UniProtKB/TrEMBL annotation:
Record organism: Lasiosphaeria miniovina
Residues spanning the membrane: none
Annotated keywords: Hydrolase, Protease, Serine protease
Species lineage: Eukaryota, Fungi, Dikarya, Ascomycota, Pezizomycotina
GO biological process, one term: proteolysis
UniProt protein name: Peptidase S8/S53 domain-containing protein
Length: 232
């Protein structure tokens, strides 16, 4: 199962990621990397978000083939970066031939009305390639809680919007928007997701925790990858 994670890139020096990058026959899990921000070969993650997203995905889906696309540098994505996201999605479909695309970011909810991006959406890439098969697209809902609606592109038709829950399956109210009547509402672990910090040893683990729908998204994508592999 091929999965593209489009985010802030990846830090190949993080210890867990280093093990995934090693060429050990069938054990290699990160197959290709590319950037749509600056130089094509500069896919280094400078803020750590994309690396964590990839890590959470790989821990859920240990046999998937992962493809990394860098589409942003930091927390905010400027308007001039929107086109790069569309190009990355096109590349993931036409060149990497992925089954699943994971988008752990949300653009301002006005996007698509005042930026012209409605014509350039995660699903429009498939429409521009009519002979290709459909792909599964996951996107983070938003982290604004019930006071905000779903972000773009999570609110789009054809995209699976992922909300965050705690370890008991309860909605993380401070993170996820309210359910949308008449639409699918998916939720998975995204509150206080535990992981060992880089460099920690098994004898002295002090776990760190991350919360957000952006971390629930790769977990949902990983579950889908496992189910797809099982079905095949």
């Amino acid at each position: 199962v091929r999965v593209a994670i489009l985010d802030s890139g990846i830090n190949e020096r993080e210890s867990y990621i280093m093990r995934c990058l090693k060429l050990r026959g069938g054990d290699r899990r990160i197959f290709e990397t590319r950037s749509w921000v600056g130089k094509e070969t500069d896919w280094r993650d400078t803020n750590g978000h994309g690396t964590l997203v990839a890590r959470f995905f790989l821990e859920v889906a240990p046999r998937a083939h992962l493809y990394i696309g860098k589409v942003c540098e930091g927390k905010d994505i400027p308007k001039e970066g929107y086109h790069g996201i569309v190009q990355a999605i096109d590349h993931a479909i036409t060149e990497w031939d992925v089954d699943i695309i994971s988008l752990s970011f949300g653009i301002d909810t006005s996007a698509g009305t005042d930026t012209g991006t409605d014509a350039e959406t995660p699903t429009s890439a498939r429409h521009r390639q009519p002979n290709t098969r459909a792909r599964i697209v996951f996107a983070a809902a938003c982290n604004g809680g019930p006071l905000e609606r779903r972000a773009f592109p999570a609110r789009m038709s054809g995209v699976i919007c992922v909300n965050a829950s705690d370890g008991h399956g309860q909605k993380a109210n401070l993170l996820s928007p309210d359910p949308v009547a008449g639409e699918d509402n998916f939720i998975t672990l995204g509150a206080y997701v535990r992981y060992p910090p880089s460099g920690a040893t098994s004898s002295s683990l002090q776990y760190e925790y991350k919360s957000g729908t952006s971390f629930a998204t790769p977990i949902a994508a990983g579950l889908a990858a496992d189910l797809l592999e099982f079905a095949r």
